[in-house]
């Protein structure tokens, strides 16, 4: 069984889809949800679905190894960032090489980087009169939105689409594709890099 931890800062609609997708899955389990906001709705959703949760602080995340200790105690194989707004510190990238995935609500390399999150992304896409947007799922390295891209899917935009409407179209793609892409990545492409569980 491969175990994943989802990191999320907000609502957690992607986290919910991922938890639902892997419920009763034969070899992938969502073992932990981690958030940097103790009031984030994602925490309640996780608890209601029987998934353990962890709230982190800047101190614990950036200046101690306590998060790593917790991830190790759960024997986490991979980390999924689903709307997680803090930069991943180098020690986590080193401990999970090629095993941290992020979803970005635009077609990287456009509209990525620091400050490009949530509605800011869709407002920038709208302001540039783009004819399409979409999602990017990529490996996380030490910079925002720069790691190797493993999946992209685009959607056409109409000139009349507001930033909010663009966000809705993109979120539909996120909900449809994120979990299956995680499944495929963990089961096939990255198989040899994953820690094997003892039992
Ligand atoms: C999603 O658009 C995700 O791509 C982004 O943050 C949003 C999170 O939404 N990085 P939710 O919390 O999963 O509903």
User: Can you tell me the CATH topology?
Assistant: Rossmann fold
Spatial sequence of strands, sheet with the most strands: 3-2-1-4-5-6-7
Structural class: alpha/beta
* Share of residues in strands: 15-25%
Structure description:
This protein is of the alpha/beta class. It has a single domain, classed as 3-Layer(aba) Sandwich (Rossmann fold), CATH 3.40.50.170. The chain contains seven helices and seven strands; from the N terminus they run E-H-E-H-E-H-H-E-H-E-H-E-E-H. Helix 1 links the parallel strand 1 and strand 2. Helix 1 (13-22) runs parallel beside helix 7 (163-189). The longest helix has 27 residues, at 163-189. The termini are close together. Residues 194-199 have low confidence and may be disordered.
What's the short story on this structure?
The protein is of the alpha/beta class.
Give the tags.
199 residues, alpha/beta, Rossmann fold, 37% helix, globular, disordered C terminus, binds 5-O-phosphono-beta-D-ribofuranosylamine
């Amino acid at each position: 069984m491969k175990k994943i931890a989802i990191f999320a800062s907000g609502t957690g609609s992607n986290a919910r889809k991922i938890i639902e997708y892997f419920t009763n899955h034969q070899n992938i389990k969502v073992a932990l949800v981690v958030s940097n906001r103790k009031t984030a709705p994602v925490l309640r959703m996780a608890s209601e679905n029987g998934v353990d949760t962890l709230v982190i602080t800047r101190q614990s995340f950036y200046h101690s190894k306590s998060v790593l200790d917790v991830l190790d105690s759960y024997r986490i194989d991979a980390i999924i960032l689903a709307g997680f707004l803090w930069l991943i510190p180098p020690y986590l990238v080193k401990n999970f090489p090629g095993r941290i995935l992020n979803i970005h609500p635009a077609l990287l390399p456009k509209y990525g980087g620091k400050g490009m999150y949530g509605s800011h992304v869709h407002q920038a896409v709208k302001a540039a009169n783009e004819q399409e947007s979409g999602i990017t799922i990529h490996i996380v390295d030490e910079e925002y939105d720069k790691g190797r891209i493993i999946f992209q899917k685009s959607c056409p935009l109409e000139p009349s689409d507001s930033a909010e409407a663009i966000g809705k179209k993109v979120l539909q793609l996120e909900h449809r594709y994120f979990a299956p892409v995680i499944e495929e990545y963990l089961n096939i492409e990255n198989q040899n890099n994953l820690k094997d569980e003892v039992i």
